[in-house]
Amino acid sequence: QEIVSGESEEESSGVNLMEFSDEILLHILSYVPCTDLVLNVRRTCRKLATLCLDKSLTHTVLLQKDYKVNKDKVKQLMRDIGKEIYQLNMAGCYWLPSSTIDHVTRCKNLVKLNLSGCHVTSLRLSKMLSTLQHLRSLAIDVNPGFDASQLSSECKATLSRVSELKQTLYTPSYGVVPCCTSLEKLLLYFEILDRSREGFMLSGQLMVGESNVPHYQNLRVFYARLAPGYVNQEVVRLYLAVLSDRTPENLHAFLISAPGSFAETGATKNLLDSMARNVRLDALQLPKAWINGSGLLQHLKFNNPFYFSFSRCTLSGGHLIQRVINGGKDLKSLTSLNLSGCVHCLAPESLFRKAEDDIDSSILESLVVSCCNLRHLNLSAAHHHSSESIGNHLCQLLSRLKHLLSLALPVCSITDVAANVEKPPAASNLVPQTFGRKVRIGIQTYPRNLADQASQKIESSVFWALMGSLRFLETLEIIGSSFSSAMPRNEPAIRNSLPPCVRAQSVGDSEVAAISQLTYLQSLTLAQLPNILTGSGLINIGLQCQHLQTLSLANLGMMGKVAYMSALMDMLKHCKCLRDLRLEQPYFCAGAQFFQALSHCSSLQRLCIVSRSGTLQSDAVMSFMANCLEVIMCHMFMGESLTVCKNLQQSIVRSFQADRPALNVVIFPLLHEDLTEVIRDVPMRHLDEITLFKSRVAEEPPNLWW
Question: Which residue numbers delimit the F-box domain (predicted)?
């Protein structure tokens, strides 16, 4: 309707949208959600009616973040273009009732189907898959109550032709893996809790009747990601047991992401020995206990590796260069490298080294030269301190990686060594520790625009130069090496945090201002920057980084007050593309002024605030929700009472749920003993992408799943 009503104005100016070529119009329409195209836009005129049903627009239907879609829209969509759909992505559509899946049976030609996060029973899955004879790629959840014996022979026949399977497990089970006899890619996400809601300990043993053996003979990619918990480790060992008997000859990617301690067993050792003898890998990630202290990397063979993750391993820089980089041979293919928490990876050896000692710049230089095509690099969760050698600062060496799209660094790694020595400590550290007269501590004043920042010659800093050289960077994370979120996964909230690294004490507003040079920045995470005094750099980012979609700020400046609140509110007024905002800060006041500023973010969809002793104004929250019509997730973990939190949560749901089917609201006291029980009900999409804090750079291989 808007297109038609605007035609008269366009004609008067000499430009008519309908006069564009079909190719241009198809390109424009490709940015419109498929539900809008089919159910709305195609009804405006005859030309658009034809174009909206073009195969280029109906071949692939993405509903995974179409938060306005409901059961009726899906039903109508499948009825109109079901036979034209070859790829359907409904991942994370948690708000749709399970009966919605029944309409997928209209898509007779489906080749790829993603139902992760959707409610699907065994019987519904069986009925649906029985009709999808062309299916080759499938993603599903396996929930408690799943029964493989309910799958029909027609369903199993479809599964036997599936070559790519992604399975998220919420209960100990093989799921549909034993039925998939042609598997080439297997992705497993283990989200099984150690205790039931009633408090009973769960076992990692598979359900009765699930003793079928998985078929791995054609496997090329094996990926397993484990949530914290012993049961997840027990179950993944059952999946690995088959691999240890016979390693697939075509295996080229083997990845296991496991938090904490995941001990190596005899079976896993046999598996790794077999891999070292029989396969050449392109991607590798192993639990730290499987690598630490072993000579495994010396024996593994690599073909054209594109992804390595040695997260949290004690791998030294010497071993990294000798056993992985191999003197720079054949590493031009490497595009993604995760060294998060690998505290000694830039030092020649780790035996007598302290984590805070200076890095060996020659190791980093070898890494940069050998892996010159890196697009994703994670060096967070470690102390990477540069020496005073001229030209060998970590930031100067990283500036050579011109292809970087995402980068994660510890705060202490971006400080100028000379400036760190000459610069006096931040005002917050000058408070006298003796009794006597009170001393008024002055706050350093920072200019609020880029030109004034330049006058202070901050452009001469190594971090400013790094940001200037990485013009196409899309994701940046600057995280304190000792930072830990107040919201761990399956534990009570952390009440005390570790102090920041001494080298990080000088990192503040000027460094944040340097980030504003990243014109194409889409995602920004800043955590534990102790010298944030006014937050003036945030305003520069809001003005210059107009593509910013995701913003996560945690523990900036002094912990006793939110010194950057005024600057944050000014920044938000310019963030028109911002979709996800996560704030973690003690004593944060979510009041009327904050929500009024946040209302300028017209594209905002998800908001998460984590604040020990934080406060909120219920009326301001309700007004914000009424003004920002796109918001479908509101998570607040504050210092308010349980009664205040519950009343506000109920008010939001009662007022907005009808118009926003995907609305998910959780407002709960941060330090309440039942927090973990509340967290377990949060949809995995929100929990994994925004509610829980973690470094996401190079977390998984690029293009692991569509």
Answer: 14-61
| Residues sharing a CB contact under 8 Å with residue 349, sequence separation 6 or more, in sequence order | 316, 317, 318
Residue 389's pLDDT is 78
Asked whether the predicted pLDDT for residue 454 surpasses 50, the reply is: no
The DSSP code sequence of 214-283 is P--TT--EEEEEE-SSHHHHHHHHHHHHHHHHS--TT--EEEEE--S-----HHHHHHHHHHHHH-EEEE
Residue where the block lists tokens 């470690």: 382
- Residue 660's contacts (CB-CB under 8 Å, 6 or more residues apart) are 67, 68, 631, 632
The phi and psi torsions of 540 (rounded to 5 degrees) equal -60, -40
> Of all helices (H) and strands (E), which one includes residue 87?
strand 87-89
**Closest alpha carbon to 613 in 460, 701, 496:** 496
Residue 568's pLDDT band, with cuts at 50, 70 and 90, is very high
Q: Is-contact 377 698, C-beta < 8 A?
A: yes
| Predicted model pTM | 0.92
> What CA–CA distances, in Å, run from 363 to 95, 307, 330, 358, 379?
49, 19, 17, 12, 14
Q: Dihedral sign for Cα 71, 74, 78, 79, please.
A: positive
Structural contact between residues 648 and 616, judged by C-beta atoms closer than 8 angstroms: yes
Within 13 Å, how many C-alpha atoms sit on residue 626's CB side? 10
In sequence order, the 6+-apart residues with CB closer than 8 A to the CB of 362 are: none
pLDDT in tens, 469-478: 999 999 999 9
H or E element that contains 566: helix 565-572
- Residues comprising the chain, all counted: 706
- pLDDT tops 90 at residue 225: yes
Alpha carbon distance 230, 261 (integer Å): 10
- Interatomic CA distance for residues 632 and 656, integer angstroms: 9
Joined together, the tokens standing for residue 50 give 């034809």
What are the respective helix, strand and coil percentages of the chain, to the nearest 5? Answer: 35, 15, 50
Helix ranges, 306-430 (H): 317-319, 361-370, 394-398, 417-422
Nearest 10 degrees: Cα torsion 653, 654, 660, 662: 40
Per-residue confidence band for 433, with pLDDT thresholds at 50, 70 and 90: very low
Mean pLDDT of the region 153-169: 97
Predicted confidence band at 431 (pLDDT cuts at 50, 70, 90)? very low
The predicted-structure confidence for 670-703, as pLDDT tens digits, reads as follows 999 999 899 999 999 999 999 999 999 999 999 9
Position 458 scores a pLDDT of: 62
pLDDT at res. 140: 98
Residues 549, 523 contacting (CB under 8 angstroms): yes
Q: What is the dihedral of CA 596, 599, 601, 605, to 10 degrees?
A: 130
Q: What backbone torsions phi and psi does residue 470 show, to the nearest 5 degrees? A: -105, 60
Share of the chain above pLDDT 90, in %: 73
Whole-angstrom distance, CA of residue 348 vs CA of residue 694: 28
Can you tell me the distance from the alpha carbon of 80 to that of 39, in angstroms, rounded to the nearest whole number?
9
Which 3 state secondary structure label does DSSP give 42?
Answer: helix
Domains of the chain are 20-116 (no CATH), 140-299 (no CATH), 463-490+497-690 (3.80.10.10)
